[in-house]
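the two lines:
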Amino acid sequence: MDMARYESCYRHWIAGQEAGLAELEAASANAAAGRATDAELRTVVERCMLGYQDYATRRRALSREDGVAFFAPPWCTAFENSVLWLGGCRPSLTVRLLYNLSGEGLEAQVEELLGGLSNGVIPTGALGITSAQLVLINDLHSRTVHQENALSDRLATLQEDIADRPLLPIVRQRELAAAARLGAAAAASGSCDGAARRRLRAARLGAADAEVDAALDSYKAALSRLLVEADELRMATARALATEILTPRQAVEMLAAGKHLHLSVRDWSRRREAAAGAQQQLGGQSAGTDNTVRPST
Amino acid sequence: MVMASAGVNVPGGDEVRNPTAASASTPECRMRRRHRLEPQGSGDAAAAAAPGPSWVRRLRPAASRFSPSPSPSLSPSSSQSSADRPNDEEQEELDHEVEVELAPAGPQLEPGEAEGEPEAEAVAVAPQVWPVAFGSLSMAGRMRMMEDAVSLHPDLCTWAADGSPMHFFGVFDGHGGSHVSALCRDRMHEVVAEELAREGATFLRRRQESAASGSAAWSERAEEERAWRAALQRGFRRVDDMAALACACGRVARPSCSCPLAGTSSGIVGSTAVVALLVRGRLVVANCGDSRAVLCRGPAGTPPVPLSSDHKPNRADEKARIEAAGGRVVFNNGHRVRGILAMSRALGDRLLRPEVIAEPEITVTERTVEDECLILASDGMWDVISNDIACNVARQCLEDGNPPPADPTAGGGGGAPAAGVVVVAAREAEPRCLRAASLLARLAIGRETQDNVSIVVVDLKHRD
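prediction for all of em together
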């Protein structure tokens, strides 16, 4: 496994997010000033979609090597990992984001409407989501949640399978064989328990072999397939919103807000964990660090 | 609780409204229906044409469609216009039917954009016109599970006494699963229509008996109301009985369903039901649970009129009924029957019987020409939007006919021809209802409602 390549892929993605945000914000400013045509905004949106697609494509290739890495990436903070769903952003979060964006400015517009100051314009919030668009968004939301639940169920089944064949029979079999060997060794060495226990631990540590590797590889492959399908759902939901339901201007606003949210949460959580790490280091030095190294398989 | 209304029928056929397409088509629709029911159609046409020369001119071509011997006084140009107009109306009716069929098709949302036919009441003077147009929006909102359902059935059936169309609208808010609310959406209107037909037949027989016996005790209005109430009560009971047999897969069967989902049907799955029947100049509302129906009366500033009363366990009379049945109301994040259900009446919920009953409370309200609209909605909306705000928002949306500027999803039509203007105006009512419903929905979501949101807005006024 080459973790550096995975992290490089992620850094490339973050750089793309930052550049994309700058481009979207410039496009948004131009649109507000009336200097951007729909065609130009659509081009910006499409570039953003291609960025997402490129990232998904890279991950697909890397996940075939080790899909597990993407489910709890060591290159992300614990906070970032806590909000991951199957290795990425939960697709229905995009709809929630859009609902909240579409609500901005609505109360003020309703006040104007009720005060007779609206000149006959029906409030649609700052983003201008129409009735017809709202119906389509709700429909997409239902489909997305349904597909999310299906993928979540598959992950649950996969995780529960850890307590089933093929892994559990191997564990039980090895345990029984080790116990038998322990008994034999004890008899041969005249009840030297300490030595027998040390040999048992050594046997366990050396237990990795083809059968176990096959079982673990099977699990990883299944996770990899889930990651690919989850990325497809993320792409499909974002693309449906950005290119089928929303206008180019609305799509620019939504995509910019999404990137801004992602990068802000990432920066904040990194800052907090860096501070926590420094604190831990100080505490560790003064208390005298435990130097025991845990053996790893 | 019966809500009394002092409203009286006012002729809706004043001169200002006559030119509108909907108004102009009303006599035609009325004549067509009456002709089917009674061979004396031409006689009624003559009577209806009595007031005002403009009425005479407008109705004469309509009458000629059905009269076996058209009046010789008709000029050739009148005959020609008569031939043209029915075609347009038939085309509009076809569009209307197509829209109605499409409306319930969506599994998660049911926007209705078809206009129900204006109702016509037979009177000696100008006929009373009671317009009905509607729009609805049903959204999961912040919930991942959608348990609400909406049922829109304009022209569901006709009232046996006089052939008046009866329009059905319902909102059903499920809990513990969606299959009871789905059952209500799919079957409540059918069952109610059957019961109305049954009660209609009974009504006719009783009226005949009363006339034969010369009884002075007969009151047409009271007897009609009794019949409608009975039909709704039986309808609710029958659907509630079905709910006990409803499987999570959507099937209603006896013996119980044998599909893999059968075991997942617990006893605490149910639904609210607020149903409105619109017939002639009356609004009949049957409610069970904590969804709500509110009548928005005009002009601006008039207080809204609740047509239903929420069935909450801490409502004094409901609490008394629950405790008399041996149950308890426990406060658990709100007042709940047995600390479980936050409403005192619902369809389904077998395990919470006998405290939780499915008997609807029914109100009958007289419409007035000032009425703006009727709003049916689930508590996902009413929890965060008051009756006042809802009515004011809906009123403004319905009054402001202009579509939002540069609406990207609206069909862009620049300057419409004179004939097109009338058509556009006639259809404009439906999008306004949808816009009212969607604005209320997004306002509820903006105010952070945590529940599903389902809203039906029924426009009760002619709009230009």
